[in-house]
Amino acid sequence: MLALIRLVHPAPTVAVVSLAAALAAILSVQADSAALTTPVVLVTLSVLGSQIMTGALNDWADRGRDAVVQRTKPIPAGEVDPHTALLLAAGGLVLQVATSIPLGIVPMLIGLAASASAVAYNLWLSRSAASFLPYLLSFGLLPIWIATAVGAPLERIAAAPLVVGPFAVAAHLANTVRDFDADARIGSGNLTQRLGRRTAFALAWSVAMAVGIGVGTAFVVGGRLDAVGLVLGAIGITAVAQGIRGPQRLWAGMLIAAVCWTASWALATG
């Protein structure tokens, strides 16, 4: 069981699902409904299914690479066979579709588009200079997916993709900087390899900080942040700022910031 949990990349999965649940609950309240409704639960489960599918498929697609540079991962370690990984990925997709159907055709199609982008990354783009594009698209679609699912007005999240997308690209750079040496050994041509370790790390940290400071400043100047929003925003900025000490710290800090800033942004736009 532990190996299956590791297969779906638990840290980013928990962060993304928590982010989705928080945003869904806040948008639901802003749409004059309760924080915990059937659509909120369904869209959260749908995002969970997407994350399970993405993580398991990623490990399946990278099994040859991992056998060379990350032999402790579940498949090369012999803890999970490739067929089981594919079944788990298929199960995640089934969960996503099954929980999306009651929400309607629009959120279901948006969610499937986000997942299709992740599949493209896993199977084709992860080792190319275009490795950032699925992050830009999938995470840019996430707030729209959630808003349509809970019936919130789209104007509440209209600007979100312009912020979430660049932050997701920064997260991609931070994550691949952590694997820089391993990717270099197998000849990966992802964006971080093209930019170089130092440039990619500096860009990841700078973009993440710019997103937090820029959006936070705009909300403060506009008088739209309350005490809770300010605290959440400050926690996120602190989490990213300490990431200057290294790629692992930056990656962890960005996961924390993603959840905090999502909640703060949603409260500020209510």
Question: How is this structure best summarized?
Answer:
The protein has helices at 2-7, 10-30, 38-61, 63-69, 82-100, 105-125, 133-150, 160-178, 180-185, 191-195, 197-221, 227-241, 247-268. The chain is mostly helical. The chain has 2 domains: 1-130, Tetracycline Repressor, domain 2; 159-270, Four Helix Bundle (Hemerythrin (Met), subunit A) (Up-down Bundle), CATH 1.20.120.
3D architecture notes:
The protein is mainly alpha-helical. It folds into 2 domains: 130 residues, Tetracycline Repressor, domain 2 (Orthogonal Bundle); 112 residues, Four Helix Bundle (Hemerythrin (Met), subunit A). 77% of the residues lie in helices and 0% in strands. Helix 2 packs parallel to helix 7, helix 11 packs antiparallel against helix 12 and helix 11 runs parallel beside helix 13. The chain is globular.
Topology record:
Blueprint: H1 2-7, H2 10-30, H3 38-61, H4 63-69, H5 82-100, H6 105-125, H7 133-150, H8 160-178, H9 180-185, H10 191-195, H11 197-221, H12 227-241, H13 247-268
Helix pairs in contact: 2-3, 2-7, 2-13, 3-5, 3-6, 3-7, 6-7, 7-8, 8-11, 8-13, 11-12, 11-13, 12-13
Q: CATH first level of the largest domain: which class?
A: Mainly Alpha
Q: What is the third-level CATH name, the topology of the largest domain?
A: Tetracycline Repressor, domain 2
Based on the coordinates given, report the CATH architecture of the largest domain: Orthogonal Bundle
**Which value, in Å, is the CA radius of gyration?**
18 Å
Helices and strands, in N-to-C order?
HHHHHHHHHHHHH
Helix content: over 70%
The description of the largest β-sheet is:
none
Please identify which CATH superfamily of the largest domain we are dealing with: UbiA prenyltransferase
Mean pLDDT: 93
Q: Report the span from N to C terminus.
A: 41 Å
In what range is the share of β-strand residues?
under 5%
Low-pLDDT segments: none
In DSSP terms, counting alpha (H) and pi (I) runs of 4 or more, how many helices? 13
